[in-house]
Description:
Distance between the termini: 9 Å
Largest sheet: 8 strands, antiparallel
Radius of gyration: 25 Å
Helix content: 25-40%
Strand content: 15-25%
Bound molecules: 2-deoxy-2-amino glucitol-6-phosphate
Number of domains: 3
Mean pLDDT: 94
CATH class of the largest domain: Alpha Beta
Shape: globular
Strand order of the largest sheet: 3-2-4-1-10-9-11-15
CATH architecture of the largest domain: 4-Layer Sandwich
CATH superfamily of the largest domain: Aminohydrolase, N-terminal nucleophile (Ntn) domain
Amino acid sequence: MCGIIGIVSKDTHSIKHDTLPLLKRLEYRGYDSAGVATLAGDIQKQTGHIGPFIDSVTDHRTQASIAHTRWATHGGVTALNAHPHADGTGQFMIVHNGILENADALRASLPNESLVSETDSEVVAAFFHDRIGVQGLTTDAAIHEFIGAAEGTYAILLMQRDDPTVYAIKHNSPLALTRASSMHGATILASDITAFGHLSDEAQFFEDQTYCRITPDSVAFFNAAGDPIEIEPKSFEWKDDASLDEYPHFMIKEIMEQPTTSRRLLESLKTMQAAELDTFATTLKKARRVVFLSCGTSYHASLIGAFLLNQLNYEAHTVIASEFENFILVDPSTFVIAISQSGETMDVILPLKRIENQAMKIGSIVNVPYSTIQRHSDTTLELLAGQEICVASTKAYTNQVIMLIKLAERLGYDVDCDKIPGRIEECLASIDGIARELAVELKHTREMYVLGRGAAYPMAREIALKLKEIDYIHAEGMMAGELKHGTLALIEDGTPVICLIHDDNPAMRSSTREVEARGARSIVVSNTGSGEVNVPAGCEAEFAIYSCLFGHLLSYYIGVERNLPIDKPRNLAKSVTVG
Ligand code: AGP
């Protein structure tokens, strides 16, 4: 998964001051390497983050530019594998987000093209050189052939040297287009609206197997056969949160925003989103069962959803999206609910597309409006957490859980949601000190365990995930009841074990004693004042939120102690757009 940007302007624009700052806004999609190409055929690219690349780039003015930030899939993190790629003559330049599954076959069909990188993407530049430069096809005919031949996922920007026209081709990877009045009406192409949400409030979103020809004076969309098509512009509201304010990292800024973001969500569920919440509740009542579809942190939120609905006597299941079809049955009486911060996670999109006509209805709960997952659902609820920049999800995740609690409340679950934002605020203030102290104690830890039962079990997994992704600690979050079936063998003198205990649950107390008896350094999180970490009172589902705030803070402060790249952990990207 990667981020791509293209600009086509009437006057010239600067790659350093116009193109690359937009690319920087997509850095959350990958940060292994970055690069940019101009109309004159100048390609600059290097490994590492975009900030240093912008500092070192030689500025050029150009009427068309394409740029790319990479999360490596095919080939190592090297400057040679960085995009843009050009064919051997340097005439055809491309950037690509996605994976070409038949890249080897395409490569074999181009015996006269010399390819130098290990990527699947370079073959695209070679393909267009062969079809247009050698065989003499028109660009439209070559694109038509490419769409017919290519298998996999792609959002591609194609530019020929000295021709101020960019072709944008899309299948299965997201691509949006807008015009920016602040840039003299320049056309901007980007993987998503995050890139240009500060410049525009309207965009056209590409459909699969379509392409667009953009010149300084025109924009024209076509289907795969080359027939002109209309794509309606959509207006959007996008709160731009790209500044750190007084915080050293986006992670802590986003953690501390949660009282505000949770209030905003709850308010909207009574006003703007009240009708959609009703639709979800009504559909749920009609469905025979509910199935959640999600990955990573969003999967942990979905476990809370399944827990709550089962408490209310609705049949509800969740399975990690990449294994969805192997373990879950979808039929015309199933309400499928996809949960995703980005709305672009390929592991969710692929099964979603396959079951589109099998389910009774598809609902989505997403943070990014007009994202692919939202556009593939019949009904949608938005998280309204604002832009989340840190790779680790915190505020969007909390709003996912609140959304599911609110839905459960609507179906009869006994909870007063209006108290949640105030309690989040109280919780953050009261546990900050202990989280900092524990981070100092645990900064050299290599392994940790987190135990929970009921609604706290998903939180145990979520806290462990944060310790892994932010702190590189091997952490296991598990059902406390499973401990004695194997994992207890790993507990030694001093092994840190976080025990999430709601309302002094006796079974959780026993599990805690079991690890303590083997020498564990237990850290009890309690809502009754009986723990080392004490969070506000509240029902089991609320405890899931408050105990997880402790996990957010602890993993953040350990990252600080270890001097790690908290907002951009190694090997990861915010938006996982490959399956
Ligand atoms: C969150 O901290 C993780 N970085 C990751 O697990 C994430 O939740 C997962 O990739 C799913 O993303 P989504 O919510 O955008 O679909």
